[in-house]
Amino acid sequence: MDSRATNPVVALDHASVEQFAADVRYYLSLTPRQLPSRYFYDDLGSALFESICRLPWYTITRAETRLLAVHGDSVFRRLPSLTQVIELGPGNGEKLRTLLQAASRRRGPIDVHLIDVSASALAIAAQNIGNVGDARPITHQATYDSGLRQALTQRTGRTLVAFLGSNIGNFDPPGASAFLQNIRASVKNGDAVLLGVDLVKPVDRLLAAYDDPLGVTAAFNRNLLVRMSRELGASIDLDGFSHRAVWNAEQARVEMHLVARTAQTIQILRAHVDERLQPGETIWTESSYKYVSEQIDDLLEACGFNPTAQWIDRDDGFALTMAEAS
Ligand code: AVI
Fold first, then answer.
1. Residue of 120, 136, 176, 236 with fewest CB within 10 Å of its CB?
2. Torsion angle (degrees, nearest 10) of CA 296, 297, 303, 306
3. Is the Cβ atom of 255 under 6 angstroms away from ligand 1?
4. 61-91 burial, b for 16+ CB within 10 Å, e for fewer?
5. What's the pLDDT tens digit per position in 83-139?
């Protein structure tokens, strides 16, 4: 439920493989069975996610890019003495580049801290940012928490923390609050956050976004099993699982599941995993919470931020919200 980005040639180190194995063992044993969505983003999973962002049915990336292009200048005008931007999970850096390019008369150089666990994502993002005016990209190959700490030790002045792409939607509500509270505790009064959040919209549109007719999202979901086979030596019948997306109206979230078509086993000898699934049994792999715009303000306020601006793309139901630490 956290960072995502391309992760090509970097092999998982031993500790990471052990953690992956331990997580698979623990989460598969829960009721309902689960797998953490952070493991979607290996090399192939990241490429599939980039493809999802280009699908006509998945509107988050395009809606947010439009808002950043149109209102990016306002973001910078509201923060006249800004000296650094920190983006948590920049992906390929294109959204941040759009934001920086939208600033018509930014004064002085700006440090742009890019935080991601993937070295290759950081390299691409840094390249995308490096040629935008006087922006100076600084990369931190780290989790959000530790990357934020590292970036803030190099603080040069007023700071904007960007968390875009509706990544906040992959946290459950207590997790989203804890995440924003942690940012608030790390920054100073007058610093700001820029949050991109997908909004609740008609169910058919939500389901098409997470169960697209081309099957790209299904491949993204099932790639988790491919990754378990490759990196953990898991014995899994890939064809035995299908993709399912459901809208949970009560919780305001789209859930993704892997569904056993017939009786299935998942065995990982090194991790002492030997799970037997009944036909129709599911593994819950992701939640994407959707918000109504007022909830975003309420969430930010509850976490110690004062919302100062909100721009909404009505066509695709997406909100970009700016808030100051107060
Ligand atoms: C990265 N995250 C915000 C995406 C989302 O919409 O929850 C991941 C994703 N899952 C399926 N499609 C895209």
1. 136
2. 150
3. no
4. bbbbbbbbeebbbebbeebeebebbbbbbbb
5. 999 999 999 999 999 999 998 666 678 999 999 988 888 999 999 999 898 899 999
How many Cβ atoms sit within 10 Å of the Cβ of residue 317? 22
Question: Is the CB of residue 106 less than 8 Å from the CB of residue 132?
Answer: no
CA dist list (Å): 187 to 157, 182, 184, 258: 11, 9, 5, 39
Going by C-alpha positions, the residue among 163, 189, 190 that lies closest to residue 176 is 163
Helix H or strand E encompassing 300? helix 293-302
> How far, in Å, is the centroid of ligand 1 from the Cα of 74?
27
User: Which ligand 1 atom lies nearest to the CA of residue 53?
Assistant: 13
Closest C-alpha to 124, from 52, 46, 58, 12: 46
Going by alpha carbons, the residue nearest to atom 7 of ligand 1 is 288
pTM flag (> 0.90): yes
Question: Token pair 């009721």 is at which residue?
Answer: 31
Q: Where are the beta strands (DSSP E) in 12-142?
A: 33-34, 82-88, 110-116, 135-141
What is the Cβ-side half-sphere exposure of residue 81, based on CA atoms within 13 angstroms? 5
Which residues lie across from 273 on neighbouring strands? 268
Between the CA of 288 and the centroid of ligand 1 the distance, in Å, is 7
Which residue reads 């924003």 in tokens? 180
Cα distance between residue 170 and residue 288, in whole Å: 5
Structure tokens at 239: 């064809």
